Q: What sequence folds into this?
């Protein structure tokens, strides 16, 4: 029997090429080896976007389309939406008793995020508790493997702590511990050279971006600020265009020659950027073809997600039943 | 249309005469004036009894029987069990985003309870958040009135804060603010004279206590420690037996005479206690008759609660539907 993997994302914006190289590319491979569940974490997204629910609404199906675009196969993967699986909220409720407030406050991932988001003294309780909600997500599907970045490891530690505590207190083995799937992911810098590509920094290239948009974004990329005239020698290291070419250009010989030429001088940024534009468009073109097919047939997408929701609910219901039995809340079906 | 009232208790032990004079006596009256929902708060009880779920299991139907015993009429009141209404956990989840951790930590009721329970640095997250869970309970049934002691007022303030914030952020009026129903309740001291009657102090007389048990408990009551011989003059104030007689003895003339006699000397504790024993037995006898009828016919009790659960679920589902629509999570039924 295949092991279960749970993955997904917060639907706070369309997915970009940073997501693609950082996780989607792996996800597409993993669906062949694992029983794959892909969750659109809309409720989790609400924990720090509760004042802007429209952002979540607008992006749930956008991100699902992005998943389908890059090669997620609904026959292999179960695509579902967190808020459509109410069993998760009940599990969350029981798990909340098994973790202390101070333990949640010491979680390094959460501490960092609280600082980043500038919550200061106004941390929403839902946000502080989201690792417990993630524990519900993971355990509901008995996921044994969860792909994460190493900054997310404390979340899985927290989940496994709750699992062990639950199983011990309620004398059961119905919950499973999970393992992190850490892969050598490529962290793609933003088009402005910033270490992080993110919607809020406006330095993204979306999977769905049209050729015109891609061209405009690449053409405005920074290169080497001292490379002013074509004949000036230029730097390759830290040059965003070359960072991107390293990822998109499969012709490593030609790319090596271009680098040499750039360093010596005599290669203009515009020529380089055109090359990159063509490569990105070529890479995204097959994704966008699939994406367009789906987005022109949203009934099919709704059907895929409804089937996914139903499958996810069935499994989560079964886990919830075991959890309720272990606690002893099955008053009527003894 | 009758206003909705939500009340109930944590099923952590059978109900005693302190509960009767403190709340049940009112509850029985209120069911004639209000659309009454009585919740067995088993999930709330788990927040500080999660390591002892058996205690909750054992007492859910005990406390429901106690309610029926004292005159709760299933035709007038909806009796239901919190954990059987999963919609409450989903509401709880959404409301958690609308309150900050520091706001929860400042709640005076919770602060006092945390100190009383000796949680210190190990406050379970579920416990800190239980006022948010209560907000879910109250709003799910659109309760306008909640009977509470004045020590519980901060919980209702918290609930109304969440209601206002939800309605403002999500541009809706689907949630209703509630009012406290503060009544002049009689706080019955324990059989040991302690201000609080509680199971953990072992100073209770349960509604279901048999005549023998009542006799044994009353006979071991403290009176006036200086009233040793029958002919000694004794104190009436602070004398637990008289405190109880003030409540149970409807013949105020005779009671007045007994007090005078006691003060002068010449009235023995045993005679007094026998009078009290008879009065308590007489008071509880009709309750116990009803209780026995129900407990000999548990199928009927299960039926009452199943009907109550179903009614409660229908109403909570409707509220949840409105809440989900307001947030915008109704992706499929637009």
A:
């Amino acid at each position: 029997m295949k092991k279960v993997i749970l993955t997904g994302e917060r639907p706070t914006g369309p997915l970009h090429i940073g997501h693609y190289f950082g996780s989607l590319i792996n996800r597409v491979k993993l669906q062949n080896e694992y029983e794959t569940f892909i969750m659109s974490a809309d409720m989790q997204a609400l924990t720090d976007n509760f004042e802007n629910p429209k952002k979540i609404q607008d992006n749930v199906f956008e991100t699902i389309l992005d998943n389908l675009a890059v090669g997620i196969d609904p026959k292999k993967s179960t695509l579902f939406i967190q808020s459509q699986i109410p069993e998760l909220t009940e599990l969350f409720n029981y798990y909340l008793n098994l973790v202390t407030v101070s333990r949640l406050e010491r979680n390094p991932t959460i501490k960092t995020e609280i600082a980043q988001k500038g919550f200061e003294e106004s941390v929403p309780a839902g946000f502080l508790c989201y690792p417990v909600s993630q524990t519900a997500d993971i355990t509901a599907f008995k996921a044994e493997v969860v792909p994460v970045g190493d900054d997310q490891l404390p979340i899985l530690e927290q989940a496994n702590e709750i699992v062990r505590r639950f199983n011990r207190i309620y004398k059961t083995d119905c919950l499973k511990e999970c393992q992190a799937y850490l892969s050598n992911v490529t962290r793609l810098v933003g088009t402005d050279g910033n270490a992080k590509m993110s919607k809020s920094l406006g330095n993204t290239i979306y999977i769905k971006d049209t050729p015109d948009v891609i061209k405009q974004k690449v053409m405005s990329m920074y290169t080497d600020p001292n490379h002013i005239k074509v004949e000036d020698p230029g730097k390759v290291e830290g040059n965003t265009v070359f960072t991107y070419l390293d990822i998109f250009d499969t012709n490593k010989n030609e790319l090596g020659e271009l680098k040499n030429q750039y360093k010596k001088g005599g290669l203009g940024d515009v020529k380089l950027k055109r090359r990159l534009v063509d490569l990105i468009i070529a890479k995204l073109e097959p994704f966008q073809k699939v994406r367009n097919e789906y987005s022109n047939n949203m009934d099919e997408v709704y059907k895929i997600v409804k089937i996914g929701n139903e499958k996810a609910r069935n499994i989560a219901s079964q886990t919830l039943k075991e959890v309720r039995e272990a606690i002893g809340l099955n008053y009527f079906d003894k």
